[in-house]
Amino acid sequence: MEQLSVATIISKIENEELFHAVSEDYSFTIKIDDYVHYACAAIHDGHQFRKALWENCLHTEYERWYEEDPETKNMINSHPIVISGCDSRFEYDLNRAPEEAVFETAWGKQLWKQPLTDHQKNKSLNKHSNFYNVVHALVTKLEEKFGVCIVYDMHSYNWKRWDREVPTWNLGTSNVDNDRFGSDIELWRLSLSEITFPHDIISTSKINNTFQGNGYFLKYITNNFKNTLVLATEIAKIYCDEYDQILYPEVVSSVEKQLRKRLPEHAANFYKKYNL
């Protein structure tokens, strides 16, 4: 993996080069092993939190981890195109618009002892902007090359804090074209429902049950690219103990192994259907 500037990363994408890179400020990684008609993203996988902000932060390291999406990159990392965030959403949230990306409060609790300076905010927002410049270049290239594209937007959520039964998988689709892509969404929901887990964990899959797909990543791509479907795919945190901060690597491995087969199959079906 190379450390590259955003300009170099974009140039490599435009020239269809294959590469593995971390951005020069270490805010995100991207790998392209082949130019294919689908991409995977894990924008909340990151846990980094720049040291200059530590003393001013009221949230503990555990509280930050609890709201992040650990291991989501590992679930999709075998696919040809993967982009993922390295920084914690508590520094800036890639799934929120720039004006909302730097939190003042987070999940009902004040985040900072003292308000951030404009300089501190702008340093975070510059990372947010760089990420989306690369996303824009990537989806532009894939639509240009294939005509259509599908992006699997991987997230996780804390299922134990719900006071009702919630699904293992949730697809958020309220901001995509359901008239056009409804059958593709249903095929993905069905495929996810067939995934099996260790320890007799039950697999269920529903649409807009816990989350509706209101994230900025999905909206940004959907609003800027007419032939790209973003599938906001949430897995309940059955792969860890969300209260004791213990990861279950055998569950993560099981998900990765099954997505290695199911995800390209779904993407191939999508491409065959729309590449006219």
What can you tell me about this protein's structure?
The structure is a single chain. Helices cover 37% and strands 20% of the residues. It contains seven helices and 13 strands. The protein has helices spanning 6-14, 61-67, 72-76, 118-146, 178-193, 216-224, 249-274; strands at residues 2-4, 19-23, 28-32, 38-42, 81-85, 105-106, 109-110, 149-157, 169-172, 205-207, 228-236, 240-241, 246-247. The longest helix is centred in the middle third of the chain and has 29 residues, at 118-146. The chain is α/β, with parallel strands linked by helices and 276 residues long. It is globular. It has a nine-stranded mixed β-sheet with strand order 1-2-3-5-4-8-11-9-10, with helices on both faces. Strands 6-7 form a two-stranded antiparallel ribbon. A two-stranded antiparallel ribbon has the order 12-13. The protein has one domain: Zn-dependent exopeptidases (Aminopeptidase, 3-Layer(aba) Sandwich). Helix 1 (6-14) runs parallel beside helix 4 and helix 5 (178-193) packs antiparallel against helix 7 (249-274).
Walk me through the topology.
Blueprint: E1 2-4, H1 6-14, E2 19-23, E3 28-32, E4 38-42, H2 61-67, H3 72-76, E5 81-85, E6 105-106, E7 109-110, H4 118-146, E8 149-157, E9 169-172, H5 178-193, E10 205-207, H6 216-224, E11 228-236, E12 240-241, E13 246-247, H7 249-274
Parallel strand pairs: 1-2, 4-5, 4-8, 8-11, 9-10
Antiparallel strand pairs: 2-3, 3-5, 6-7, 9-11, 12-13
Helix pairs in contact: 1-4, 5-7
